Amino acid sequence: MSDSVVYDVSEGVATITLNRPEAMNALDTPTKVALRDTIQAAAEDDAVRCVVLTGTGRAFCVGQDLKEHIGLLQAGDMDALWNTVPDHFAPIALAVAEMPKPVIASLNGVAAGAGASIAFACDFRIAADTAGFNLAFTGIALSCDTGVSWTLPRLIGQAKALELLYFPRTVPAAEALTLGLATSVVPADELATATAELAGRLANGPTVVYGSVRQSLAYSASHTLAESLEFEAGKMHLTGDTEDHRNAVTSFVAKEKPTFHGK
């Protein structure tokens, strides 16, 4: 595992931290591999009931490491250059988006390119007031990746998504909140506390239910109403068989606050 990705699990919360502050957490190949594998491991770990993605230093993640990219271009290594999309960026986006548990992006700084795409695949984006988003792809004459063509228009609409992709600029935190790119904005020195509060709340909730809800919403985006109703029925059956459901119903009747165990 690369030192550029730090993984910690505490009280049901898995925190995945990009740790290349000197490179603004740019994604070189070892970091992409480590990030992909760590996210997939968190998705499969029954002890994890909420996942937090964050970064160290001034940036959340500025996307592809362009120094590495230029080196591959100059070396003519086209396989390594373009296989990174199906081998790394796409699996990262899928692992985040299809995670059967809630995911928070805790944005300590700018999220650019694939870094922004990863944040958009999360359920919540808590941004420091010093953070921002930049859809940098066309600025270096590349199309978009890491699922942003799917997530971004669903967050802010087709027209605004095209504008931000055509004409890249850093969208500051306050504007990002207004547009819907950020879920909430907090003072930078309160980011860790705000993230911990939300992560704790989610980690103490009905994990299977959260996973089912996020998967149902994703499914409905590309299926008919009839198909979505059938998918919903399956998820109702799944969640109805959980201990959390039975305990919650019993607590409701007893007028007590339910305790969830994520199963």
From TrEMBL:
Gene3D superfamilies: 2-enoyl-CoA Hydratase, Chain A, domain 1, Lyase 2-enoyl-coa Hydratase, Chain A, domain 2. PANTHER family: EG:BACN32G11.4 PROTEIN, ENOYL-COA HYDRATASE. Belongs to the enoyl-CoA hydratase/isomerase family. This is Enoyl-CoA hydratase-related protein.
